[in-house]
Amino acid sequence: MSELALLSLLAGSSGLQSVAVGLWLRSQQFQSKALLQDEEEQLTPYDSKETIDPMDEKTTNKERRNSDPRLVGWEFKILRSAQDSFRDPSALKQVLEEESMAGWILLEKLDDRRLRFKRPIAMREVIRGELLPIDPYRTTYGQNSSPWTKVTIATLGVLVLLLPSYLGFILMQQLLTKPSQPTITPTSTRIP
Question: Nearest-CA neighbor of 102 among 82, 73, 131, 80?
Fold first, then answer.
């Protein structure tokens, strides 16, 4: 009977361990998402080029004509990767080459998953996006997980949770249906 209790405890603890590990991983995800949001809200501010106020009396007519608001200043973007792709120097070099074709300049590497770029607003007019091999306004890099990948991961997760339970059930069923050995009872023997 003690074997039965021990085996059921082992089978049940596997499922509990799986749940505990899953909860721990989920809390790690929440912490990393909170850290990302905090970092993005506190990005380093950069001043753009001074704009010329057309109503300012000190500016000349020539400056007013040349001060198209679309051509003054910078635009920014953050390029994200699902994995730590930017840790690899060759991958980082490739990304920088692709982005430089669209006029983007690396402003800062936030971490191994995020890069911050800037480019003059005037580059919108100069570089034709349809002629580039990449989208100049892309914000993700690398392979995004496909629906089949998500389904496969979910299926494996369910199997990992159900397999210990099923094996525990089979083990208990075999132990309980095992024919019991006949017990020998002492009989009284008479001596004639």
Answer: 131
